[in-house]
Write a structure and sequence with these properties.
homodimer, 6 helices, 4-stranded antiparallel beta sheet
């Protein structure tokens, strides 16, 4: 991993393309924007696009590709069918396969959406001396289903999924200031403290990711999470859908 | 007009609805966001929405309504079919009628797009002591077709239209700083000086709006303009399209 973290985005994508790197992308290409990937048939792409526009904090759109295209303009030379470390294929709203290449699944009616991810603001928080327990422990960030309604769009309806990072009271305002400079990476938190107010019954039992460690006096701070669009897509029980595998993002050429 | 400028957005929209106010909205409801309106059949709405996502400076999306809906969530109680002072109906890419009410034109397949407009940042510039010649002279801002390509989306292809405001060299950097705080109103300028570099042959002959007055030493500063989506829609020669009439915006309930 220490060698991987020094590679340029094009080199990392090449290692994914050849099947050499099939692991997570957290910590790779520091300072570079990483993106969630959602691929849908054209017939449902309009509803999904409207959903993203109406829920920008959960779904900050980096790029929408033309139908059938797998070459994002934000990463010249990249191939979305092979340049991520892993993909999940969903059929009728259920996980069907997890693969490292989707060339054999490709269809001319597929529309690819690149959506910002929290790695960008996490790096900025740590640079400013704000410690993130899940990173220090090498764990996934804890994520929770909430009762916060998303603005629906056609077939796409659902509630927000949030990620949680415990912060010291003295760091919270500064963390908000830092994160609001990253509108392409979910922006400022959506909720501070009181998990029960957003429908989280037990903060120690996340719905996705790993259980947190919250030190005495730390406050749970919640951000809109890129799992939201995935959860909404799955809940809508589409016949076919492809996403990146958890933690295995597209490393773009853009600065975070 | 002096009385109108003191009215709340709901009162202004009511005056439009009853046909009492059919004039421009410049200067009305200070501090409130005004919006461009584009209404398209559902079959072309996807291409237009992707175009907006790919060209955010020209087309800052405030809201996309559901097909057939004329009740924006950003202005509860408003009716997009009657609450603007004027509308233009286009057929096959040509202006067909200019009307003050579109209820008789409404169809269940129409999708309405609200797009930010420059009135928001102009008010902020003037509050900061930056004079705008077209406002002081009671004229429309000059607008120009450029050679700056927009990122195309399906049937929606074209070049950027810009608005121009002459500024003193000492004010330019400050104007950029102020405007970049208004991403919903075209944000920071796209070009400073050298109109010929963006394909403008004669700065004194705008393609839309009124001819400018540029004082000695002032520099022409160019912003992405909300006429861009209208120009692109017209160039694509859609069978049917409705927009607001020039200068006759939707006064929303949102702060600028």
């Amino acid at each position: 991993m220490s060698d991987l973290s020094k590679l340029a985005p094009t080199e990392l994508r090449q290692l994914c393309r050849t099947g050499t790197h099939t692991g997570p992308t957290a910590g790779l290409a520091p300072g570079i924007l990483q993106a969630n990937l959602v691929i849908l048939p054209r017939e449902v792409a309009y509803d999904f696009l409207v959903f993203c526009v109406r829920n920008r904090k959960s779904c900050p759109l980096i790029e929408v590709l033309d139908s059938g295209s797998f070459a994002p303009t934000s990463c010249p030379g990249a191939d979305l069918r092979s340049d991520l470390p892993g993909y999940r294929i969903y059929r009728d709203g259920k996980l069907s396969e997890e693969v490292t290449d989707i060339r054999e699944y490709w269809r001319p009616d597929l529309v690819s959406f690149l959506i910002g991810c929290s790695f960008s603001f996490e790096a900025a928080l740590m640079e400013q001396g704000i410690k993130l327990q899940h990173v220090e422990r090498g764990c996934n960030v804890p994520m929770y289903r909430t009762n916060i309604p998303c603005a629906g769009a056609g077939r796409m309806q659902g509630r927000m999924v949030v990620s949680m990072r415990p912060l010291k009271p003295a760091d919270i305002a500064r963390a908000v200031e830092i994160c609001e400079r990253f509108p392409n990476a979910h922006g400022a938190p959506v909720h501070v403290g009181s998990p029960e107010h957003i429908g989280i019954a037990d903060i120690m039992q996340p719905d996705y990711g790993d259980a947190p460690v919250i030190a005495d006096g730390e406050v749970p701070v919640f951000w809109a999470c890129g799992v939201t669009p995935q959860a909404v897509v799955l809940a809508s029980k589409l016949a076919f859908c492809i996403t990146h595998a958890p933690g295995k993002m597209l490393v773009t050429d853009l600065r975070a």
